[in-house]
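Homework help thread (please don't just give me the answer)

Our assignment gives two proteins as sequence + C-alpha cell strings and asks us to describe the second one. The first is just a warm-up. Here they are:
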Amino acid sequence: MQTSTVQPRETLPQIGIVENPAIFSDGDDVLICYEIAPVDGGGNVILEFEGVFHFEQNSMNIRDLGKHQYPIEAWNISEILGSDRTERWRASKPRFWMITFNDVTVEIVFQTIRIVLESRRKERPCEALKAFLQASGPPR
C-alpha cells in the first residue's frame, strides 16, 4: 500500500513553537490543547477527536523527524493516507494524523474532529485545558 502525507482538509491554527501540548483522553475521545502560533494570533486551541481507535504520544525531538517512517514536518499537522495504521478499522473510514510539537509527536487514528475552543488568552496549554475541563467536564 502506497502512503502519502497531506495537509488535513480542516482549517486549523498553526502550531506555536514554545509550548508542548496538553492532552486528555477518556478512553474513547481525546482532547489536545496546543499553543497557537503568533502568526495566527496566539493563544490556544483545543481539538476534540471522537471515535478514537488508536492514540500514541511519543517523545521525539524535532531534529529527529527525518528518521520517521512518514515524511512529516516540525510543528505541523499531517494526515497520512494509505497507512497500515488504519487498515484494522477500514470499515469505519478512520483518519490517521501525526501532529508534531517541540519534543512530542502525537499519532492518532480517529473518526471525527472538531475545534471545541479557540482562545487568544495567553496561558500555557495545560492551564487552558484544565480550565476547559472544569467548565465543561470531560468529552461526552
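The one we have to describe:
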Amino acid sequence: MSMHNEEGGRALNTKSLRIATLVVLFINLALIGLVELFTFEIEQGKEISGNGNPALILWFIELPAYLLLLIGIGLIVHRERYLERRKDIWIPLMILVFLAVSILLQVDKAQRGYDQLDGLIEEYGWLNPYTNTIYINFYSFLSGILFMLFIQSVITVIRTRQKGKRT
C-alpha cells in the first residue's frame, strides 16, 4: 500500500509539474510577444526619443521564466522517460536536425535585422530598442528547448547503451 501511495504522490507531482510547466510556457510565449510589441521599428527619417528600451525590462522576466520552462520540460521528459522508449540514435539525430534548422532561422533573422539597421544606429551598440527581437524571439526560444532535448537524448542513448553492455 505504501508503494501505491508513493506512485500516486509521484503522479500527482508529475501532474502538478506538467500544469506548472504549461503555465510557464504560456508566460514565455506572452513575454516573447510583448518583447516583439515593445521593440521599436526603424523608420526612415524618424528617431526614438532616447527614453530607454522598454522591452529590456521584459528580458529580466523572460530569461528566468525561460530557464524555469527548460527545467520543467527537462524534468517531465526525464520523469516520464519519453526519450528512453526508443533506444536507437534516430531521436537525437532528428532533434539535432530540428535544432540546426532553428539555429539557421535564428541566424537568418538576426542577419536580416542587422542588415535593416546597418549604419542607422551605431551609437546604440548591440543591445538597443531596435534589436530586442533579434535576441528574444520564437527561433531562439525553440533552439533552447531543442538543445536541451538533444542533450537529454544523447545522455539517454549513452545510458541505455551502457546498461546494455552490463547485462
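TA reply:
I won't write it for you, but here's a hint about the kind of observation we're looking for: The helical segments are 2-38, 54-80, 90-117, 132-135, 138-166.
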